[in-house]
Amino acid sequence: MAPFLDHVDDEETTSNKSRVTVIGSGNWGSVAAKLIASNTLKLPSFHEEVKMWVFEETLPSGEKLSAVVNETNENVKYLPGIKLGKNVVADPDLEHAVRDSDMLVFVTPHQFMEGICKTIVGKIRKDAQAISLVKGMEVKKDGPCMVSAIISEKLGINCCVLMGANIANEIAEEKFSEATVGYRENKKTAEKWVQLFNTPFFSVSPVQDVEGVELCGTLKNVVAIAAGFVDGLEMGNNTKAAIMRIGLIEMKAFSKLLFGSVKDNTFFESCGVADLITTCLGGRNRKCAEAFVKNDGKKSFDELEAEMLQGQKLQGVLTAKEVYEVLSDRGWLELFPLFATVHEICVGRLPPTAIVKNIVHTSPAPFIMELCSTPPNEAIM
Amino acid sequence: MAPFLDHVDDEETTSNKSRVTVIGSGNWGSVAAKLIASNTLKLPSFHEEVKMWVFEETLPSGEKLSAVVNETNENVKYLPGIKLGKNVVADPDLEHAVRDSDMLVFVTPHQFMEGICKTIVGKIRKDAQAISLVKGMEVKKDGPCMVSAIISEKLGINCCVLMGANIANEIAEEKFSEATVGYRENKKTAEKWVQLFNTPFFSVSPVQDVEGVELCGTLKNVVAIAAGFVDGLEMGNNTKAAIMRIGLIEMKAFSKLLFGSVKDNTFFESCGVADLITTCLGGRNRKCAEAFVKNDGKKSFDELEAEMLQGQKLQGVLTAKEVYEVLSDRGWLELFPLFATVHEICVGRLPPTAIVKNIVHTSPAPFIMELCSTPPNEAIM
């Protein structure tokens, strides 16, 4: 076959293939890249290569992180010991990493999202689709804004979300997990994301409820802080279960008050009750909150994060602050004693024992329980 | 004051006071007696004395259990190290223990319930009220029968239920817990039970849904067996959370299929998601199921129960069998892969790894998810 024809064939075949960039290379970002790379190798509708934007760091050895990732096929800092797949290419240049891709996977600490959007706006493909794995929200003058909404607004593209019971290291070891994709209208787009992430050990389901899925992923970190306080106080499993139950009710009520479109069933998906459980059992927010109590509050969360998380970020404390601002702004503080108390403990205004004392006999308010039981919206999966 | 008048006064005052008997003196029964006794000492509407029927056993020392309980004020076999309260009186004679009481608290392994009812029928007060803390169901020719229904039917009295995130030893240590009282119609009766059990560290809420509350308490033991298998296989928290999530969905769907009156919100009470969590973290069903896997199925659950539980009974394996009979009888086996698989593993027809393999991509069925999201009944707490 003549080289020319060969080339044309190749162009034709590849022109419809999607190109994926993972924006972020922390613990979860690296695992997401690995999952995706295992699928792009097999599925004909995707380019094999997966770009992964690496926020460049100089390692203690003096080498650059991105160079080491490409040499060893491992993220030696955030996911050591796990091969990412040879088709994962680390790129420290954000603009370069995103410019050819039509599928953008956002997975960074949420405080970096505004800056990332500013850098890439106008420099991405017009037909690009986004998915956010980012937990957290921004509280602005006119109310809370979810990360998926920030991406959609700043970049002018559609944005789904993926959340679930996903302790990253367990997925890296290919232990069975589930996850939920939240989408707005276009089910076909959701199905493409499901195709990209789904593996025999990572079972992904789509749900038409972006805000519900995203708020589950975000708010569970606040409940995990509460659960960590209970662990630090050595109050046992009954108390911890009570706190998680009340936390789940506040998550649901808060989500439904903010967005009337949020569906009841979302809380029974992996992003809901399952993610809450796994995060309250093993996550980093729980762990740092436990340490906060064990150190009698003498070490701040900033110090604990620096000591315990090897460069990873703690979302729960920040989210608790943002949620507190919303509650305070709207006069809802008394309706959400658990959320409010977590923040008050984090900033040292209340002792950790308040996590039980403040919610007993006051939470959940009848209004909140009733809100939880309103009929689900008409469109059920 | 003349002795006669004194006597009359005393009669008048006490005639309206309720007398309580706890039927059962295992781990949970002893804790229940302790909770109740702390309240009857304080509340004027109850006689101080709490009778506790003890299934008589001879201890290794040659002494009778009931005599030792009364001498030491401790249940040395099932709750060692905890004082029950001086107003708890152990009685090995069942008929004698119940005959004067108008409040009967049933808390024995459920396989003993039929025999107990046979013994006391016609020998209790006509105005007696019952509450069941018993987990399990009987499967009869014409369908499953809950323990509260057996009590009501056999004894001709009203029966409430109390369930919740209640690992007994933690309550004995006065660590904070919650519980749920399920009642049928008479809210005043429910409130009297709440009064009897509620303490500053044991927060009880009433819900008008006997079957929902009772099925939560019963079915969660089957899910705990599944969670124990996952622990034994060392599959991690994501998998465990996924199994617990699917278990919760099957609990809800099964309950609603059996009883149309079951309410959605019941699953957000302590008896629902909270009890599921605490039982899957620390309960005896989870523990024995983990050991079953670690021993490669070479030890039966009967052997593990004898070895590990010091005379306590394992409810989950029995309930799994009963649930399997219902599923099989009604042609629902495929709708409830988790419940069905737990039983198949328990009896050795499937390997423990089936707990994940059999439910991935098959559970929960769309029908089951939809069933979970039907609007709650009109009467919301």
UniProtKB/TrEMBL annotation, chains A, B:
The Glycerol-3-phosphate dehydrogenase NAD-dependent C-terminal domain, residue ranges: 209-356
Domain Glycerol-3-phosphate dehydrogenase NAD-dependent N-terminal: start-end pairs: 20-187
Key word Metal-binding present: no
Transmembrane segments: none
Keyword annotations of the record: NAD, Oxidoreductase
Binding site for NAD(+): 24-29, 55, 112, 168, 284, 313, 315
Record flagged with keyword DNA repair: no
Catalysis performed (reactions): sn-glycerol 3-phosphate + NAD(+) = dihydroxyacetone phosphate + NADH + H(+)
Pfam families referenced in this protein's UniProt entry, alphabetically: NAD_Gly3P_dh_C (PF07479), NAD_Gly3P_dh_N (PF01210)
GO cellular component term, pick one: cytosol
Enzyme class at the top of the EC tree: oxidoreductase
Superkingdom: Eukaryota
Active-site residues annotated for this sequence: 220 (proton acceptor)
Residues where substrate binds: 135, 284-285
E.C. numbers: 1.1.1.8
Gene Ontology BP terms: carbohydrate metabolic process; glycerol-3-phosphate catabolic process
Entry GO MF terms: glycerol-3-phosphate dehydrogenase (NAD+) activity; NAD binding; protein homodimerization activity
Family (UniProt): Belongs to the NAD-dependent glycerol-3-phosphate dehydrogenase family.
Protein name as annotated: Glycerol-3-phosphate dehydrogenase [NAD(+)]
Organism: Lithospermum erythrorhizon
